[in-house]
Amino acid sequence: MFDRRLLKNFDWILLLLLIIISAISVLNLYSATYPLRQAGGSVIFMKQIYWFIIGFAALLFMTTFDYHLLGRLAYPAYFFALALLIVVLLKGEVRSGSQRWLSLGGVMFQPAELMKIALVIALARFFSEHDHPNGYRLRDLWRPFLLMALPCGLIIKEPDLGTALTIGIVCFSVILFAKVRLKSLLILVIGAFLAAPFIWVNLQEYQQKRILTYLSPEMDPLGAGYHINQSKIAIGSGLVWGKGFLQGTQTRLHFLPEQHTDFAFSVLAEEWGFAGSLILLLLYLFLMLWGINIARTSKDKFGALISLGVVAIIFWQMAINVSMVTGLLPVVGIPLVLFSYGGSSIVSTMAGMGLLMNISMRRFMFQ
């Protein structure tokens, strides 16, 4: 029998925040693709609307069952997502030199986006079943690290360093939330520094060039440094109030590369200035604080860790993308979550938001 208290506790604030961010995203994408309308820009704009409709449907679906059911499905869902990543490397479609997409009924999707949510749920189950009140030692964490390493290794092979980096950071965030002993944490930090040279020599040449260009943007202004230089020009030219909707010169003349995906925030900053950018970032901040509050009021560790994992996905993709387009970090190909064009990302993120809403709606129920 359906519990009417679920409707009473429906999280309208979370839904309103998502609707506002989605509306701004669609409006910004219309502007970003406006000069391309005769070359498929209008198709991109309409596809984004369709993806948001599907995303909100996924969000509502994720509220229809008790989230504790996911505890039993966590590992099967993880291995299913892992199998899809293997299929991508065997039969995936290659675009722009990367093999990241699978076709399902003529619709292209990225299994790596599904893995983000599946991995958060799997980690939440592990830490809720293996409790260490005094903190986890390194030898207690070999299974979470294995859960993280397998998909990251497959995604790097595509290659998709940005998504692998996001998954790795999100997993470390969940592990830290679960409470790691200080000694173990220091060993991890030291190990990361010692592994840096090995990671560097195994990067692709273009990835090394992006990092070197970040350290010295003027070394290749028309090559590796072109993206970030044009992004800085677009953001800086917006000043306080921006140039106005459809009035951004960097966007209109198409100097800004990947302006509907990785550099969508630059389009917003040029047309709406510092004021518009600040409003969007405040909306993200409110969304993340609301998610943290859901985790705080969750009745069990499983729900709290899922909530914190979903918030970590939002935070790190937002922080890295904004830092990337403003020149604070190297260009690593991470789109702005819920804002840049991309169907797989929107649907998987909305599903994660549905989990947040699910946990919020059931916070009053006895476990």
Structure characteristics:
3 strands; three-stranded antiparallel sheet; globular; mainly alpha; 367 residues; 67% helix
Number of helices: 14
Q: Kindly report the spatial arrangement of strands forming the biggest sheet.
A: 1-2-3
Largest sheet: 3 strands, antiparallel
| Order of secondary-structure elements | HHHHEEEHHHHHHHHHH
Structural commentary:
- With 367 residues, the chain is mainly alpha-helical.
- The protein has one domain.
- It has 14 helices and three strands.
- It has a three-stranded antiparallel beta sheet with strand order 1-2-3.
- Helix 2 (12-32) packs antiparallel against helix 3 (41-61) and helix 12 packs antiparallel against helix 13 (301-325).
- The longest helix is centred in the C-terminal third of the chain and has 34 residues, at 264-297.
- 43% of the residues are buried.
Topology:
Blueprint: H1 5-8, H2 12-32, H3 41-61, H4 69-91, E1 93-95, E2 98-104, E3 107-109, H5 111-129, H6 142-156, H7 161-177, H8 182-201, H9 205-215, H10 226-237, H11 249-252, H12 264-297, H13 301-325, H14 343-361
Antiparallel strand pairs: 1-2, 2-3
Helix pairs in contact: 2-3, 2-12, 3-14, 4-5, 4-6, 5-6, 5-7, 5-13, 5-14, 6-7, 7-13, 10-12, 12-13, 12-14, 13-14
